[in-house]
């Protein structure tokens, strides 16, 4: 048999999906499974976006420009400028999802052996994007006790070597829900300028900020224009994960032209995705107001419910739709499998993501899980009741 590449062998599998066979088995046995494990929202996609898709009238399903359709980039620039990003359409490269924007950003900025510092826990696929570039993730721990705030800058400095090229943040954060403050971003700005590093900001959850917290982007900071790379996507903003449209934004022209070369090798982002995404920009504010209200209520239900369970702790996150909670258990990987395989309450069970998949430091977060509040409140309440019973019955319970 021909050999698999070293990079192929090193490529990590998705930790979020590894419990899927156990959930499928539970369903075969007739159990209802509450999926708190993945970030697929149940919110309806804006009608305006779906209508654009239904009304498509092209006669040739053609390639589009590699950088994206001009009219879409113009409307996108106007959307960002309403948020005070101060960018031009020519700073935007439309991609096949935020995932491709991340791939291109990493490929364009990091050479083999180069290092990128990322506060952990972090979105697990960052490992895959960095591995595909033969580069190295240097994780820096953030802690549940502080709600996963940005670690002190002195801790970042300890990790900086002559191979460090970039710092990546996800704001608001997946998996922690933490929303970075202006002060935290200012401190990252000073660090990136001091060591001449790129700052990648993954803003997939920008629209999901609660409690009248203001969202701050590195695009709002003066003097960092050559260092900032924004990663964005329509997946979460419009509950349109299947559209596969995202973008990379940079004001650094050399980087933009490099990124465009990678974009040219995949020829074009999807035509119908861009048509729908362009229409989505006219989504009325009332859509976002309703969504934000719904997620705030869900977050409150989940966070209050979790903290009421004996031995469970989670902070109140300021954004996104995830929480990381600490459970009174020996091992979250074992517990998340056990609850699917061996436990049910009213013939129901819960699927969660063990937080170990979001840490790259070994043996950290072993008693933590990530929960996505992408279900209706009633389902969240049922899932919480099930979790409470399961924690009482679990043989590996540890008293805190
Ligand atoms: C933080 C973060 N970045 C990027 C992505 C990828 O998004 P897309 O669907 O646009 O590829 C996700 C998807 O869940 C995400 O959570």
Automatic annotation (TrEMBL):
Q: Which GO terms describe its molecular function?
A: L-aspartate:2-oxoglutarate aminotransferase activity; pyridoxal phosphate binding
An example Pfam family from this entry, by short name, is: Aminotran_1_2
Q: Which GO terms describe its biological process?
A: amino acid metabolic process
Query: What sections of the sequence does the record tag as coiled-coil?
Result: none
Does the entry feature the keyword Protein biosynthesis, yes or no? Answer: no
Q: Where are the transmembrane segments?
A: none
Matching entries from Gene3D superfamilies are given as:
Aspartate Aminotransferase, domain 1, Type I PLP-dependent aspartate aminotransferase-like (Major domain)
InterPro entries, per database record: Aminotransferase_I/II_large, AspAT/PAT-like, PyrdxlP-dep_Trfase, PyrdxlP-dep_Trfase_major, PyrdxlP-dep_Trfase_small
Sorted alphabetically, which CDD domains does this protein's record hold?
A: AAT_like
Q: List each copy of the Aminotransferase class I/classII large domain by range.
A: 32-384
Going by the UniProt record, its keywords in alphabetical order are: Aminotransferase, Pyridoxal phosphate, Transferase
Tell me if Iron is a UniProt keyword of this record.
no
Highest taxon of the lineage: Bacteria
The entry assigns this protein to a family as follows: Belongs to the class-I pyridoxal-phosphate-dependent aminotransferase family.
What name goes with this protein?
Aspartate aminotransferase
Q: Which organism is it from?
A: Sphingobacterium gobiense
